Structure formats: structure tokens, C-alpha cells
């Protein structure tokens, strides 16, 4: 979590220690286990210390819409800080380490550090911006651009906590998860991967993604990563 926050701002030793208090109760979850379900009381949030998870919403016809993909260091439940109930279900994609904390612990952070308060707001704004891009993907981009844009986003997010470029990375999402993210069918996702491979833009070997030329893929997807690079406002600690 500390490394994730340091992407947004420099932290003092006291702020690092304050953040670390939010990860003092690690909980081990296996792939497929739920952190919480839509409609349950929203009295806590948490930090994903290890592994991947996702949030989803089930529509009236029983179909699933995936809203967020969470990676190590992400804060989960921040959008529901002022809500009475959880607005979506959160499930582990891989085996995870998740640290829950009550909303009141975040109040303590806000009281003790204006810089961390600004950082939490920046992270919340970034999460909201990713949802906006998801809406644009669903409504305005064709299938190849949807998948290419999503892969560029994942690569950019992973680069925050990985030194150097990422021409290869692991994407532990099933084909059905990718379909539910982009409003496609699983078969259509497979066809799009084949099309991207034929154009030498993306190669996939199960969960391993290889991007030979990230600039070409970004141009193909019309990907601009400004919405992922929000910075905190300058303030005293």
C-alpha cells in the first residue's frame, strides 16, 4: 500500500507508519471467495496487499457486469465510504491477502495527515476516472479497441509498482471475465485476441500477455493515460 501511495506523493516516516496501521489485520482469501456482497452493510473497506480481485454488479436478467479490477496496493470500498450498503460484490480472482479496517480508521488518518487525505481523494478520483473510461469503452469503442485499451490500462497500472517497461505481464482474468468487462461474449473475446495477434499487436499465452510495441498498441486503442496519473494537491503533512 505504501509503495502504491508513493506513486502519488512523497510520504514522511510518520505517514508511512500511519498507513501501515491499515494493514495490520491480514486475511487470507482463496480464489473465488467474496470480500463482501452487494447489499451487505458497508461498515468497512480494505487494502489488497497481495493478489487480484474484482467488483461486479448483477443485472436483472442475471448477467454480470464487472466494474473494477483490483491489484496489490489498491484500496477497495473507498467509493462506498459514505454509503449504508455495498453497491457491488467483490470477489478474489487469485489467492489474496486482504486487510480490512472500519471506516473509523480512515477518519483517524484524515485527522492526522492532510497529505494522506489528499492522496485518498486522488485515488478515489482515479478510480472514478477508470469507471468513466469503462463507460466509454462499453458505449463508443469497437471490440478490438475495447480490448486493446483495457490491456494498455492494465499495463500502465502495473508499471506504477514495477521498475522499467512492461512488455510482458500476467493477466489472471478468464475469458468470461474479460467478456463481462467489455460487454462482449467469451467467443468474441477470443476472436479479438486472434485479430490483435494477426496484426502483431498483442500475443496471449493463457494468462501471459506480450505487447511487442506498446506505442503501436496505444495508438491503435487511442489510449491516453492521463486519467491514471492524477497527482495530489500540494499541502503540509
How would you explain this protein's 3D organization?
With 237 residues, this protein is an alpha+beta fold. The chain has two domains: 2-131, Sandwich (Jelly Rolls), CATH 2.60.120; 142-221, Orthogonal Bundle (Arc Repressor Mutant, subunit A). Helices cover 41% and strands 21% of the residues. It has eight helices and eleven strands. The chain has helices at 2-6, 13-20, 103-112, 114-140, 143-159, 175-182, 186-198, 214-221, and strands at 26-29, 34-36, 44-50, 53-58, 64-70, 75-76, 89-92, 96-102, 168-170, 203-205, 208-210. The strands form three sheets. Strands 1-8-3-6 form a four-stranded antiparallel sheet. Helix 5 packs across helix 8 and helix 6 crosses helix 7 (186-198). The longest helix has 27 residues, at 114-140. The protein is globular, with a radius of gyration of 18 Å. The two termini are 18 Å apart.
Task: Report the CATH topology name of the largest domain.
Answer: Jelly Rolls
CATH level 1 name of the largest domain: Mainly Beta
Provide the helix percentage.
40-55%
State the order of secondary-structure elements, H for helix, E for strand: HHEEEEEEEEHHHEHHEEH
Detail the poorly predicted runs. Answer: none
> Quick check: average pLDDT?
89
* Total tally of structural domains: 2
Strand content is 15-25%
Largest sheet: 4 strands, antiparallel
Protein name: Crp/Fnr family transcriptional regulator
Keywords: DNA-binding, Transcription, Transcription regulation
Organism: Kushneria pakistanensis
InterPro entries: cNMP-bd_dom, cNMP-bd_dom_sf, Env_Response_Regulators, HTH_CRP, RmlC-like_jellyroll, WH-like_DNA-bd_sf, WH_DNA-bd_sf
Amino acid at each position: 500500500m505504501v509503495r502504491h501511495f508513493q506513486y502519488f506523493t512523497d510520504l514522511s516516516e510518520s505517514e508511512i507508519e500511519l498507513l501501515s496501521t491499515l494493514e495490520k489485520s491480514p486475511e487470507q482469501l482463496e480464489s473465488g471467495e467474496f470480500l463482501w456482497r452487494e447489499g451487505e452493510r458497508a461498515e468497512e473497506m480494505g487494502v489488497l496487499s497481495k493478489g487480484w480481485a474484482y467488483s461486479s454488479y448483477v443485472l436483472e436478467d442475471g448477467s454480470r457486469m464487472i466494474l473494477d479490477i483490483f491489484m496489490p496496493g489498491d484500496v477497495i470500498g473507498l467509493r462506498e465510504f459514505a454509503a449504508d450498503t455495498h453497491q457491488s460484490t467483490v470477489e478474489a480472482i487469485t489467492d489474496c491477502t486482504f486487510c480490512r479496517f472500519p471506516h473509523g480508521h480512515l477518519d483517524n488518518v484524515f485527522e492526522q495527515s492532510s497529505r494522506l487525505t489528499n492522496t485518498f481523494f486522488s485515488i478515489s478520483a482515479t478510480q472514478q476516472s477508470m469507471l468513466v473510461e469503462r463507460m466509454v469503452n462499453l458505449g463508443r469503442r469497437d471490440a478490438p479497441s475495447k480490448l486493446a485499451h483495457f490491456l494498455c490500462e492494465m499495463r500502465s497500472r502495473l508499471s506504477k509498482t514495477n521498475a522499467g517497461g512492461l512488455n510482458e505481464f500476467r493477466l489472471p482474468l478468464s475469458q468470461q471475465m474479460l467478456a463481462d468487462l467489455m460487454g462482449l461474449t467469451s467467443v468474441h473475446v477470443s476472436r479479438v485476441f486472434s485479430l490483435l495477434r494477426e496484426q502483431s499487436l498483442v500475443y496471449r499465452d493463457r494468462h501471459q500477455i506480450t505487447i511487442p510495441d506498446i506505442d503501436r498498441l496505444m495508438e491503435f486503442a487511442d489510449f491516453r493515460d492521463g486519467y491514471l496519473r492524477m497527482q495530489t494537491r500540494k499541502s503540509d503533512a
